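FIELD: query
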Amino acid sequence: MKLDKIVLFVLACVIPAACADLNYTEQNTRDEAWTYEYYENGIKNMVFDVYAQIYNNEFASNSAYFLAGATDGATDEAQYALETGAINNYVNGGWSAANPYSRIWSKCYTAIADVCMYMEKIEQADISEWKYNPDYNNWVQQLELFPYELRFLRAYFYFELFRTYGDVPLVTTTLTNAQANSITRTSADKIVKFIVDELDAVAPYLPVSYTTEVGGEIGRATKVACYALKARTLLYAASPLFNTSGDKSKWDEAAKACKYILDNASTWGLKLSAYGSLWGHDAFYNPELIFGLGRGESNSFEMANYPVGVENGSSGNCPTQTFVDQYEYQDNGETFGERHPGSINLASGVDPYEGLDPRFALTVVKNGDDWPSNGSQKKTIETFQGGFNASPKYGATPTGYYLRKYVDGSCVTTADNQTSRRHTWIIFRLGEFYLDYAEAVFNATGSANDATYGMTANEAVNVLRNRSDIQMPKFTEDGEAWVERYERERLVELAFENHRFWDVRRWKKGPKYFSKVEGATISSTMQLTRTTLNRRAWDNKYYFYPIPQTEIKKNPNLTQNPGW
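FIELD: result
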């Protein structure tokens, strides 16, 4: 059976038109009773409206440039090229409770409130007057799944709140304004338990795939997504930011949850793919993808991230030299930063990038690359001073590099004859859970070579590194050397998939990774020199977001996170 990934192309098309219809408190001809009696434009759109909130959540942090990569410019992965980018507020000291630069709190609780209301009212849904409609039996079967889908979504939004704020109010019923403005925060442990219990409860009722369900739709929650969200939640809960006592039993729970996914992946139709197939026009068919956000055909992300000098290119998220330094060479596992710790003469005839991990060339555009790949715009990229894609042009890369991952080079962005492609932003994929499993097993057992769970941490990581298009040297380390290399491997494998921002926080390693980040400048004589990127600041209060001050003013029972 082919796994039906959770890819929200259908939702993206339906929901914008549906939102107004669902607001039955406004003066219109559609009241609440009508909503629960009319399936297609009532109940179904109401449920899909909750799915749509995922779009406006973590991926909206960068207000300028669309979904993927939203948090990368606030990490050591990238520097956002334009100083006006909202993401820069996370690293330049402009972040505060009064200006939280995030809608995670409001969007999550809006979605949760919708779920609570729908769960209380969906039992009253009566579509019997449509029984002579040819689609009636299909509607009835879909309607039976909606409560379980809604509970999955509520668990997803609580995960977002938990990892962002720590302790948050746990609400499972509709509230009056007075009640909403008097609730208190629930401990993170209890939030985690709620998420896990909900996912365990609904997973048995959700299909592995919708290909055999009525309608054959995509874009809806599956049991596989439930297990993926459960495993990631438990990994976070076991991490130092939340597991302050170092309780190994939490790592044990995370390891078992990840192993369950790996053991059943083949049965569910999941398998690892070539790395470069994880994005692109047909990525939603990728057998590695578990949960993704799909968008219809567009070239907006390409315009945002094509190099300056490419028509309509705005540079966007530019990979840092610090990030490039983490890639290993295929011959002996030495990193780029270890082999080239100082300045580099790019005109020496020796290519310092030759022999790097293949994931580098699939993720980063460097000086001398031919990019983008479409015939009408393809050219050799010049990031040296005075080059066609470099300063002093406004908005040129501040790091010496441009982004390739997620960027579809076949998109034409010229004023005339533009082309567009579909995009799928990854939320869960199988590759993540090999890494999650490795981390959990290492911390549960204290060794990267302990086979207590049936697969050692090193064996799990090596599955990824042994893919046919990667073929990197195996992990054999243990102890602190393993931790160092694992954190580097996780950065490389999951680059620009919205993990680094959160991983460093849950590890409580902000000062180590985010205090100093380097870019590179290339002189006209092709001498690469490392430069410290400005607009960078780390404060330990950044481990958690501030509770928006507007919420605390409305509800004095909410306490602010430390330091804010």
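FIELD: remark
Residues 136-165 form the longest helix (30 residues).
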